[in-house]
Amino acid sequence: MRHQAPRPLPYSVPAETSPGASMQTGARGNATDTYTKGTKDHSRHARTTGPRGVAPVRPSLLSPTAVKNAVVVGAGPCGLLAALELVQNGASVTLIEQRQAYTRPIHWNVRADLLHRIAETCPGALEKVMAKLGPIESVENIDATRTNVTPEQLEKLQKDRPNRKFIAGPDGLKWQQKGARNDQAADAQLARFGGMQMLTSPSIGQILTFDLENILFAELKRLAQLPENSNTPRITILRGHRCELSPSPDKPGWSACTAYEIAERADASGKKSLEPTGKRVPLGTPDLVINSDGASSAMREAAGIAHTHVSPATRYISASIAIPQISADAPNGGLARRRYAELVNPADGSVHGVRQVVLGITTAPRSWVLVEAPPFVDLTTKEAADAFFYEHAARLLGMSQDELRKAPITWGPNPFTMQQYISATAVKGENVVFAGDAVGNAHFLTSGGVMTATVPHIRALEKLLANLADGVPRWLALDRYNRWTMAGTKAWLKLGHNEFGRLGDKHEPFESALAAALERLAKAETKPAA
What we know:
Number of strands: 24
Shape: globular
Largest sheet: 8 strands, mixed
Strand order of the largest sheet: 7-8-6-17-18-19-16-20
Radius of gyration: 24 Å
């Protein structure tokens, strides 16, 4: 069930700033909370250097309401930064992750706000992240036989995107973005909270997901191996484990945690899956549980939190291919190519727009290639999916299918379905909160996934810890976390919604799509917690 603030309020607040007040939009587009305006935030400036080399440790750690121990479920970028933020606030942390190693070869764009966030939350990892960050420039082509770009549209594009060069020609519209790299040192005090403010800022480079994960994990592991004493947080890392929640035996509304070991096993057909071994680690009732186990969150489902779509569905085929020349094509070291094409359904003559993307950086000898497939294309067999992928990826890359098929495939091609989702809440009971894609996910072409999880969501966690340590009533601190986290997710959803539209297509405005989704969530009956 959803977290509900108790009534009556423990103290009086103005009517317009009650917990029922909605999120507002600040002057620069960042989400603000009307009933915290004017309050002082000491969560950054009042930190000191800790005995284990973790830069920020709140002096209010000794507060009886501060989080002393926590469990983080999911060790992707969001979970790792959440664990590091908890350690900085003096909390002992148990990190639970089912994967034994990081292998996702996915490229994604980095905005300066992530570097500022790392400078604050994990300064020891910043230099390593910068070393793996590849500069980018992008070339985009709208190869649409039915699309005409008017002078008015071209003028508007040039005004809205001054860092790009647009050329209208007989084959459609092309534009090129000059390579960018953040040469200014990241500044912890520049880490911003607003989701829309962050997402609409320019990308400054690309990085591989497993590079960022390995760097953050190594920093957390380094801290875990430092000598402990009675005044330092304890860090426990449980890889090859999953987490299950159960009602706390002594705290109504709270959840207890148990980690259970899993191992890879094969059935009679040879299909592999992760199954429990029978070994369990009881973790008691933590002060806080942060769940960041992804869009298909098992914990969200077990908690009975409703989850619904906020967009139509589209299909893509993705692959990681060893094509280093994609990076070499760009003078500044990296390249993002996008192509828009319109395909005709032979059955009824209807036209479907598809988008094709390739990302390459000099810091990795491979490129990430994504090809959208319209609904009438058969992808039920690997042969059919491969045929469609190679046909359109070759056009995107400017090479023949034979040449492309000779390039080593390090992952894929794999079909997947993309659809935006949002959860009813980011809070469960008194001690469980959700972050990252477990709260909601939007279109990947905005490069908003990891960015939303690691910037506004971790900022919301930082504020939650500060509020609890400063004695803010728990229901109010959780309510604020819920509002701030959902606001960051909605900003990503709004930006991602545009990626489902095609030139000339009519699609539902974001505001009505979100309103319909929220109405479905309000009517949904949640399941009892497992």
